[in-house]
TrEMBL record:
Keywords: Coiled coil, Cytoplasm, Cytoskeleton
Coiled coil: 323-365
Protein name: KIF-binding protein
Location in the cell: Cytoplasm, Cytoskeleton
PANTHER family registered for this protein in UniProt: KIF-BINDING PROTEIN (PTHR46321:SF1), KIF1-BINDING PROTEIN (PTHR46321)
Predominant localisation class: cytoplasm
Organism: Electrophorus electricus
Highest taxon in the source lineage: Eukaryota
Lineage: Eukaryota, Metazoa, Chordata, Craniata, Vertebrata
Any Pfam family: KBP_C
């Protein structure tokens, strides 16, 4: 290479460095009314570089032809000397491919997707005749990554999958056949003193492959291949830890999200490990700035809010973990009427004796994050909550308390003022924790008190919310409150059955529970009515079962109210019969509803036959009483 060409090459390297600075640093300072100013400047420089590469390589070819030999390119091009036996034309193709790649990314970042696709496609065409070498393997992978992202953004998931899976194959093949640090994209346009070290080249190459796996995880998720998506997500997180390529809060949220997938598969050991890792890694983001510091500085305020929000989101994932673990245990232990099956409980407790041997196997089969210094912290946090199904009240309570602790943490950020939907969802999860814990409690009075805690936390919110703006939430709360009072009524009924003669205080409590449950069921049913107060002739699918169940339970509650007055008894039974009749008649008019409320319909039909007989007996008593 002549001295003139060397100068041109150095100028080219300086131009490339300037384009990188514009794209990666100065673009962040661009004004809102001209957000792509620096990107456009970088694009012009890249176009100039593209033309220069063509001209410079053409001059070198002529120079080589005239001398009959290649002149040493010197330190500037030292990194490219061992071009895997490929021709100078091959090297020129890679250089042009690199510039096309950066032009493609530039166009995509400025929201010109078609132009971006064209440049990335040209990049791939430059390499179509090249074998995979240390010089081009990074470009091959990164260009396919970008095309994968592009097509995923266009909702062509299968096309994105093709590009990304090819990128994965290229990486695996290269690592198997060579495995040495390949050239980075910047190597083609930097002087030797600015070139990345071998270690840095390998780090960047591994980072590109980590991105491949991350994008594949999203693609598999969108295709419904959840098992593969989970595997790729976990592998991505592990690699980010291994190569120290992560932002703590972002990594923690992704790990917490992955835990929710494992929960759906009842893989609680893996879910717990992800959550413990999320909590520990989130701690690396630092301490939450004080409220006073946040008021002093906008930066401190933003940091405070981000840390509080992300940690609250991780706490919400912990809540789901505890809740689902308890609920899945309940499914294992309940009999056909939803009560604790003592025989089944004893059987599972006996099986626990062999658990210690299996536990180590489970630990080995679980997906663990081998994260160096933080691994001990993760394991320490895991030990504070079980991943085994609780089989008795004490075990269930330990899990409940962990969940309740995270409820309190999540509520500190997701306050009612400003986060209504999130706050109510957290309250509903807290209520659900009490509900499932009550299942494990043998003492009926204590169980009733747990349900009362649910009422105490939900009722004030239900009263304060404006149904005009939060109709769906109000309906959920009304139905849950109605169900909670209904369960309390059943428990009080069970307690009363054990007594020879319930006293007036017990009867009053029982009636109050019936009335409260009816009130909230009726509020739910009234919310379905039109503005004119008319109940719909045909219920929407999402309201069909809740509405008919509400009618059925109102009917049962009305018939359960205890009264010494025959007139009141008759009025209550009349209302009960009307409600049972509603369920029966609706199912007759809409046969598709029969399968939705099969049990309730069967009981309603039975009561429609029996209640008139009971009502006639009361009328007879009333008539007899009048005669006397």
């Amino acid at each position: 290479m002549s001295s003139t060409n060397i100068r041109e090459w150095r100028a080219l390297c300086e131009k490339f460095r300037r384009a990188q600075d514009l794209s990666e640093i100065e673009s962040k300072k661009d004004p809102e009314n001209d957000p792509f100013r620096s990107k456009y400047k970088a694009r012009e420089l890249l176009k100039e570089i593209y033309s220069s590469v063509k001209n410079l390589d053409a001059d070198e070819s002529e120079e080589e032809d005239s001398d009959g030999q290649t002149v040493d390119v010197g330190t500037e091009d030292a990194a490219l000397k061992a071009y895997a036996g490929d021709s100078r034309a091959g090297l020129r193709a890679v250089k042009l491919g690199v510039v096309d790649y950066y032009l493609g990314v530039n166009h995509i970042e400025t929201e010109e997707l078609s132009a971006g696709e064209e440049h990335l496609t040209n990049c791939m065409k430059c390499l179509v005749k090249c074998t995979v070498t240390r010089e081009n393997v990074s470009l091959l992978i990164q260009a396919r990554n970008q095309l994968g992202i592009l097509w995923a953004g266009r909702d062509d998931t299968e096309k994105a999958q093709g590009f990304l899976e090819t990128a994965e194959s290229v990486y695996i093949c290269y690592m198997k056949e060579d495995g040495q640090p390949p050239l980075d994209l910047v190597d083609f346009f930097v002087t030797e003193e600015e070139a990345p070290s071998q270690q840095e080249r390998m780090r960047r190459f591994e980072m590109a492959y980590t991105h491949t796996l991350y994008y594949l995880a999203q693609v598999y998720k969108n295709l419904g291949h959840f098992e593969r998506a989970g595997q790729y997500c976990h592998c991505t997180l592990q690699r980010q830890l291994n190569f120290n390529q992560f932002v703590p809060l972002e990594w923690a949220i992704n790990a917490a999200t992955l835990s929710q997938y494992y929960i759906t598969k009842t893989r609680y050991m893996e879910a717990r490990h992800c959550l413990a890792a999320a909590s520990v890694i989130a701690g690396l983001a630092g301490e939450v700035p004080s409220e006073a510091a946040a008021k002093e500085s906008e930066t401190e305020y933003e940091k405070r809010e981000q840390l509080r929000q992300k940690r609250a989101e991780i706490s919400r994932c912990w809540i789901k973990y505890c809740l689902n673990l308890l609920q899945d245990a309940k499914k294992l232990l309940e009999d056909n009427i939803g009560e604790l099956d003592l025989d089944r409980q004893e059987e599972l407790q006996r099986a626990r004796q062999n658990e210690e041997e299996e536990k180590e196997k489970g630990r080995k089969s679980a997906v663990l994050f081998d994260s160096g210094d933080t691994f001990d912290s993760i394991c320490g946090l895991e030990e504070k909550v079980s991943c085994a199904f609780p089989l008795n009240f004490e075990e269930a309570r330990a899990i409940f308390l962990v969940g309740q602790g995270h409820v309190m943490q999540a509520k500190e950020y997701f306050e009612m003022d400003g986060h209504v939907t999130d706050h109510v969802e957290i309250l509903q999860d807290h209520s659900a924790l009490f509900k499932v814990l009550a299942f494990f409690e043998q003492d009926l009075e204590r169980r009733c008190k747990m349900h009362k805690r649910r009422v105490d936390m939900l009722e004030p919110v239900c009263k304060d919310l404006n149904a005009q703006y939060y109709l769906l939430i109000c309906r959920q709360l009304q139905f849950e409150l109605a169900e909670t009072f209904y369960e309390m009524m059943d428990l009080k009924l069970a307690v009363a059955d054990k007594q020879d003669q319930p006293d007036s205080h017990t009867i009053k409590k029982f009636n109050n529970l019936c009335t409260a449950s009816i009130k909230y069921y009726q509020m739910f049913l009234d919310s379905i009515r039109s503005p004119e107060g008319k109940f719909p002739e045909k219920l929407e699918d999402d309201l069909l079962r809740p509405a008919l169940v509400a009618k059925f339970r109102v009917a049962r509650l009305q018939s359960k109210i205890i009264s010494g007055s025959l007139t009141t008894q008759l009025e209550n039974l009349t209302q009960s019969l009307d409600s049972y009749n509603f369920v029966v008649q609706y199912c007759e008019e809409h046969p598709e509803a029969k399968k939705v409320v099969e049990t309730e319909l069967e009981l309603s039909e039975e009561m429609v036959s029996l209640l008139p007989i009971k009502m006639n007996r009361i009328r007879s008593k009333m008539a007899s009483s009048n005669i006397q």
